[in-house]
Amino acid sequence: MEFSIITVDRLDSTQNYLIDLSNKTELQEGIVINALSQFKGVGQFENKWESESGKNLTFSLLLKPRFLNPASQFLLTQVLSLAISDYLLTQTDKPVSIKWPNDIYIGKKKICGILVKNQLLGTTFENSFCGIGLNVNQEKFPPLPNPTSLFLETGKEFNLNEALKAVLESINLRYNQLKEGKIETLERDYMKRLLYKDVFATYIYKGVEIEARIYDVNEYGHLLLKDREGNDICCELKEISFIHNVL
Ligand code: BTN
Fold first, then answer.
1. Which of 15, 35, 96, 195 is most buried (most C-beta within 10 Å)?
2. Do 219 and 157 fall within a single domain?
3. Contact call for residues 137 and 149 (beta carbons, < 8 A)
4. In which residue ranges of the chain is pLDDT below 50?
């Protein structure tokens, strides 16, 4: 895939900008809207995505996975999570993992958030807007739950343009695996990198604290866990939150 990167000083949100642009004009796959600063960055659950101006990567990439069955859209989430974590693994020896479904962690701290919005046309895939916020050179964060950056983890400053190109290259490699139908590889690698897989940890599930062990993710992207009694739990994103207490 050829990427065409459009870097803008300041935008409300690269995600909203790319979606609006694609509603007005036919865009090619691989277009990247990259902002040095966002004043209304959006995160999961309509949360704000805060990022210090000029310090981090905040960009949205357009993919057109028309070869993909809409029922398999979770594969795109896996592609992006694997690609970002592949890149981070080239930069640090620290443990890089994927917090289900698509937050990227170093140790117990979040370094990257991913927001995927898929557009379907009838029963075929049309567009996938992939918004990525990767903390690169930021040193200080507001008291959010548990953020980190590449700078904080490595002590090094990164060139943002080079980092963007390397991340896009990683996305290209994993996206090619998807195009080539290497689904088992993607699923296996995703499971290997999943945070708290096969260990008991504490979660809030449907408002109640539970102790459970992640053992799989199904094809629809639901998280599968077993509690201490061996009961199966199958949950969607909004039903569970991680406490980050490994037992
Ligand atoms: C999350 O909440 O974890 C997802 C965060 C996604 C943030 C990125 S930054 C680039 C793109 N533009 C936005 O407004 N949001 C996404």
1. 15
2. no
3. yes
4. none
Q: In this predicted model, what pLDDT tens digit does every residue of 148-163 receive, in sequence order?
A: 999 999 999 999 999 9
Co-location of 168 and 216 in the same domain: no
Give the model's pLDDT for residue 246: 87
Q: Whose CA is nearest to atom 3 of ligand 1?
A: 113
pLDDT in tens, 128-149: 999 999 999 999 998 777 999 9
Of all helices (H) and strands (E), which one includes residue 163? helix 160-179
Q: With H, G, I as helix, E, B as strand and everything else as coil, classify residue 6.
A: strand
Q: Is the pTM of this model over 0.85?
A: yes
Same domain, 101 and 74: yes
Do both 148 and 214 map to the same domain? no
CA–CA dist 202, 196 (Å, integer) = 10
**Whether residues 16 and 125 fall in one domain:** yes
Continuous H helices in 25-115: 74-89
> How many Å lie between the centroid of ligand 1 and the Cα of residue 231?
34
Q: Alpha-carbon distance 217 to 198, whole Å? A: 12
> Are both 107 and 220 inside the same structural domain?
no
- The residue range of the domain holding 57 is 4-192
What's the CA-to-centroid distance between 230 and ligand 1, angstroms?
Answer: 36
Protein residue with least CA distance to atom 7, ligand 1:
133
C-alpha 31 to ligand 1 mean position (Å): 17
Domain count, the chain: 2
Query: Looking at ligand 1, which residue's alpha carbon is closest to its atom 2?
Result: 43
Contact, 87 vs 210, CB < 8 A? no
Q: Are residues 86 and 168 in the same domain?
A: yes
Rg (Cα) of the chain, in Å, rounded? 18
